[in-house]
Amino acid sequence: MERKKTQIDDVDRGIYDIKNEFTYKYKTDKGLTPEIIMEISREKNEPQWMTDFRLKSLEIYNSKPIPTWGVDLSELDMDNIITYIRPNSKMQHSWDDVPDDIKNTFELLGLPQAERESLAGVGAQYDSEVVYHNIRKELVDQGIVYTDMETALVKYEDIVKEYFMKLVPPSDHKFAALHGAVWSGGSFVYVPEGVDVDIPLQSYFRLNAPGAGQFEHTLIIVEKGARLHFIEGCSAPKYKVNNLHAGCVELFVKENASLRYSTIENWSKNMYNLNTKRAVVDKNGTIEWISGSFGSKVSMLYPMSILRGEGARSEFTGISFASTGQHLDTGTKVVHAAPYTTSTVNSKSISKDGGYAFYRGLLKVAPDAHHCKASISCESLMLDNKSKSDTLPIIQLGNDEIDVGHEAKIGRISDEAIFYLMSRGISEEEAKAMIVRGFVEPITKELPLEYAVELNNLINIELEGTIG
Amino acid sequence: MENKLLSINNLKVNIEDKEILKGLNLEINKGEIHIIMGPNGGGKSTLAYSLMGHPQYKIIDGEIVLEGKSINELTADKRAKNGIFLSFQYPEEIPGVTVEEFLRTAKTSVSGEVQKIMAFKKLLKEKMIQLEMKEEYAARYLNLGFSGGEKKKNEILQMSILEPKLAILDETDSGLDVDAIRIVADGVNKFIDESRAILVITHYNKLLEYIKPDYVHILIDGKIIKTGGIELAEEIDKNGYENIKAKFSN
Amino acid sequence: MITWRRIGLKDYVFPDIKEYTKEYLKNINNIPVDVKLNKITECANNAENHKFDISEVPALGKEFTSFVESSYNSGISIYLPQNIKLKSPIRLEFNMDDKNPTVVDHNIIIAEPNSEVTIVIDYNSDNKTKTFHNGFTKVYAKEDSIVNIVKIQRINDHSYNFDSNIALVKERAIVNWISIELGSSISGSNYSSILQDMASESNLHSIYLGDGTRKMDLGYTMIHKGPKSLSTIETKGVLKDKSKKIFRGDLNFKRGARHSKGSEEEYVILLDPTVKSDSIPALLCDEDDVEGDHAVSAGKIDESKLFYLMSRGLSEKESKKLIVEASFKPIIEKIPYEDLQKVISHEVERRLING
């Protein structure tokens, strides 16, 4: 039988691994000081309140200890991370104006093509700054705003000031404080009342520089009765030094509005992905998270839904795939803060080749949030016994008028299932891949076709290493 | 002989160090229908799994020869490519994989020809109509939430799509109502021709009202102790296995 | 001083431990002579004679277990020789009152290969004395032995209860825990089994009832080390008034525990809007070739069942009581004494109907 047995480090991650030469227009020194923060703020011509906000955040950052639970962050040396790198390009509205090396990277990642075929708008960030942003004219005509955060801070300062880091305050945890101090780039989306955006918007975050951090801020406001699907993609080539991603996503879903937030994260395996995502949902609104975590060395990622309006709804569908050298500590938090709210969590994890997949979840029902419904399902698939898979759901219930169910399963691919498929002429590798694809099918089916294909490709890349 | 499809010579098979098949011999020619009957625990399912190459069923001695070549060392997928098919007594449920996707992959693999999506859809639909299966089953996850009867029909559907040379039906008739047995038997009768053979494993007679076997074998305690025609099945139906067993013990 | 926020202990200091003067060993008839059954206060160094390593399980924590080991005033040491199977259970009853307000029991159970024993311990008290119980029970179940431990906690609502239980389970041995948690104002109870070898097995069945302002912390751990080891955690509870419960169940599959199976289930009925129910069912896995699952369900009492019973003329309270009892019954029936089964049913009824 032909076997492909290679170390995962040698697996060809193809387009994701293409490195460009590290060039930049401006970068800060390594480490973090008030001077560096003020420099970033000055570079960006920010209003004073934002400079103050950054400095305040830095203070909080310095006052908080590194989290000691969950994952090991001892190798992450903030003094060695470059927090701000302005690429050799201004933000453009046409791909033709983006420098060739950067444009080629995004071409290979398929972004311009996806924009032509299936997206209503695209933002592309390269290191610390957004290099491309564009939105279809008909959306602009409906009053939709989709731009980079820097532009938003100038053009929509009042809105930004009202919402920026209100949902995830810098005091939340150490890396939220870090984000508040050094944030750069990201996307701003505003969907006016009643507007239904039926084609997705996508922002893509690419970190090319070695030893750097990316701290993009995504702020989305979906007004009453409006609807949006936002897709976030991220990747980076692999370097020997550690990179850090501490982005922040704040989503405001107003009455009767609905937002679907999809992420396919494929950071390189030298990345610390310490990202904070949070949504607050008003009366009868809906937030749907689709989350695929494949990359990074260490991830701590727990998208949170706060259901604060009666009848608000959240749905989380997540898959994480941990392979050699990866510790993915992911999950979701749901807070039922109002009556008649419902939530569904469907999480799947795969671990192989020594990878460590950890599901950490919180379900909290406030005392006055009666008539809530919540269901959680966690399934873990282990592909070998070098790997590790843990599930830790915390369920806190504060009243009796609720209906809560939780289920979790852990295990391996059944030998009988493999034999059954093989008895139909399918090779062992393909049988296993088929079962793994079937396992994650509930997630792929939620994604637009191109992204489902990308997700399946990522699974195939990961499986090619050692299955057989 | 070019007509010879399968020979099993003195086959001994262990499961976890316990000998289940104790020197079994069987010859099957193209165009024939064979029935294997026997009490529970006699080794019927072991024979089926051993022919298909289940890794837990270890061949200790003897040989399985398909069209002149030993298949002892082949894994299940290679055996399928060589034309063996097993209809499972308890088909596995595979979440997330649709019947259509699965069968197209399998057909591609077995036939070595890429199956075009539209053409395959048409073929699948035809076969499903023959088996009185609802079209929506093509989009359902493989065996997931299927009733016992639906699973068995799905096995026969796979057989008719993959067109093996030797089909082994392991208790395909058990748990089926009269209508389902008729449909399954119909599928089997449509399948059999001069180039193929069928080995039916069963422990009762219902299927035999619809399928006319060429040979009936009695498998007890790991060996075929008697071979005859349909009259042997009738005798067992009347008298059970005890009489035959008594005749052959000691 | 102990601070344990989850159940509202802050800078807590253990009370002075008095001698426990009542007879707590209830039936010691029919015990074969070669079974060594002693009160732990009457035989020195029992624990030393049978060192077995259970240090990897923290139970309620070192503060609690070390205290028992140094300050015990009661408990038994039992040594079962090979092949001895005790037909009738060994029964202990602690009845605390103003003269005997503290029980610190230290129990050591050594079951040699192929032996079998059932031990039933009933902790109760009078209605008014503020009593204190802190116990530590250690079970060493050797090859093919069966040890059943039944614990009933029905101490009054002014008292504190702490209980740690650990079993080391060898090849093909089975340790069954039954825990009935009905009383105390603060109760911390912990059961852990280390499934050490091939086909080691442990099952835990528990019921709990929270009423008034009781705070309960229930911690159950199954550590699978041996291949083909088996474990079950089945917990059924009901919470009313302002009671609070934290349930933590860990199924921990260590590398090498191939073909092991573990399942964990908590089912809780919430009767009042003022209750608090936390559940943390953890599944930890270093071995791929295992089957582990856990399930938690929580919610109000089944409305359609309630309606059905009420339509037959039962009051709401009676109907609720009936539904809760039906849920508890299979576990209560595992207790080998009818009188205790009745006492428990009465206690459940009293606490459900009153208030």
TrEMBL record, chain A:
Domain SUF system FeS cluster assembly SufBD N-terminal: 48-202
Superkingdom as given in the UniProt entry: Bacteria
Family, per entry: Belongs to the iron-sulfur cluster assembly SufBD family.
Species name: Wansuia hejianensis
Protein name: Fe-S cluster assembly protein SufB
One Pfam match: SufBD_N
Stretches assigned to the SUF system FeS cluster assembly SufBD core domain: 205-439
Single Gene Ontology BP annotation: iron-sulfur cluster assembly
TrEMBL record, chain B:
CDD domains reported in the protein's UniProt record: ABC_FeS_Assembly
Residue ranges of domain ABC transporter in the record: 6-246
Protein origin, superkingdom: Bacteria
Molecular functions (GO terms): ATP binding; ATP hydrolysis activity
Tagged with keyword Nucleotide-binding: yes
Keyword annotations from UniProtKB, A to Z: ATP-binding, Nucleotide-binding
UniProt record similarity statement: Belongs to the ABC transporter superfamily. Ycf16 family.
NCBIfam families documented for this protein: sufC (TIGR01978)
The protein's name: Fe-S cluster assembly ATPase SufC
Biological source species: Wansuia hejianensis
Automatic annotation (TrEMBL), chain C:
Stated name of the protein: Fe-S cluster assembly protein SufD
PANTHER family: PROTEIN ABCI7, CHLOROPLASTIC
InterPro entries in alphabetical order: Fe-S_cluster_assembly_SufBD (IPR055346), SUF_FeS_clus_asmbl_SufBD_core (IPR000825), SUF_FeS_clus_asmbl_SufBD_sf (IPR037284), SUF_FeS_clus_asmbl_SufD (IPR011542)
Source organism of this protein record: Wansuia hejianensis
Similarity field: Belongs to the iron-sulfur cluster assembly SufBD family.
Source domain of life: Bacteria
Biological process annotations from GO: iron-sulfur cluster assembly
Residues annotated as domain SUF system FeS cluster assembly SufBD core: 96-326
